[in-house]
């Protein structure tokens, strides 16, 4: 069909705290350059106990929804690998907290960091089949590997919300995706574990190998080359890995094209560099970063996207920027998320690390004094999370 469907609005939520990677390196006895240059990270978002995956997602959605959207949305997808319940979808709470009309379908999707893309693709198909409707897709996660763990410098937390509709005013999602599934154990989280099992080097190797394979297959199926793209976005667990991914994609390109693509990537990585890994939302944080920061992009440009979720599923697809896309971004809201964060010392970060909602079923009230977010978790009562809308 010649219907144009894609991203009409995009919003971000970040928790109100962060730590500086140089502080963390000093405290862990590492060279600061390892984190800033080796991993490509500068600041890492830290969630307070008053934010969970659901509240962050709802906060991101509130950034973009208006009453017309609330009337027309009939699909709500939460993409996450850090859900709060093994049965009930987090999107049912979000549907309620954001005031969407009742006749909507709400589901949660899981496949490590990949499911944001699965949610986006599902939403695009849904709109194709339900003309005039709108879909809300939110990718939200809290990435934790444990204090002093190998993965500690690649943590983060946050949510990206996207409104999907026909004739989108940010980007058209092209029906060209190529996916790949590969049953491997590079990163996974058995139900009984608090933190994931992760084979760090192996996971990075798999990420890059799956990227090479889906990119090669994509080029073959669609008869395109790197020259057909203006810029590339990646799942960014740490921004150095996206840089390595770009090198794979650029292999064989002319030197001037390579230089151009590297310049674009600097804009793509900027938000992730200052937020860390937000898992499912990470690819879209890179996209948002390009929209906000990249002065060399314009309407009609084609952007290649690589999504990866350990376990593993990878997907390559493309998007086309639409006229005046930049006017659709609330630049001020995004800037203020970063500007209004409070820096924690490493001691404060460690003290807060285990101050989470209890997992033993006991009742709990959170301390949300430092959290001005519109939606917060007030606690747990009778095994029910208590969300407050301010
Ligand atoms: N100055 C400059 N660079 C330095 C340095 C210094 N003083 N010291 C080290 N470096 C460089 C290293 O050379 C290395 O870069 P290259 O790989 O380009 O050579 C980089 O810093 C990191 O060093 P190490 O590889 O030694 O780091 P590590 O083994 O301690 O940890 C990690 C890195 C494996 C990524 C670890 O943080 C981790 O396990 N993270 C979680 C897993 C992860 O994010 N995997 C990504 C792929 S899986 C995925 O994408 C899904 C997902 O979101 C989890």
From TrEMBL:
The GO terms this record gives for MF are:
hydroxymethylglutaryl-CoA synthase activity
Answer yes or no on keyword Metal-binding: no
Q: Name one GO biological process term.
A: acetyl-CoA metabolic process
Q: Which residues belong to any copy of the Hydroxymethylglutaryl-coenzyme A synthase C-terminal domain?
A: 249-354
Q: Tell me which residues this entry annotates as catalytic.
A: 81 (proton donor/acceptor), 113 (acyl-thioester intermediate), 235 (proton donor/acceptor)
Q: Where do the Hydroxymethylglutaryl-coenzyme A synthase N-terminal domain residues begin and end?
A: 3-166
| PANTHER family in alphabetical order | 3-HYDROXY-3-METHYLGLUTARYL COENZYME A SYNTHASE, HYDROXYMETHYLGLUTARYL-COA SYNTHASE
UniProt protein name: Hydroxymethylglutaryl-CoA synthase
Organism (species)? Atopococcus tabaci
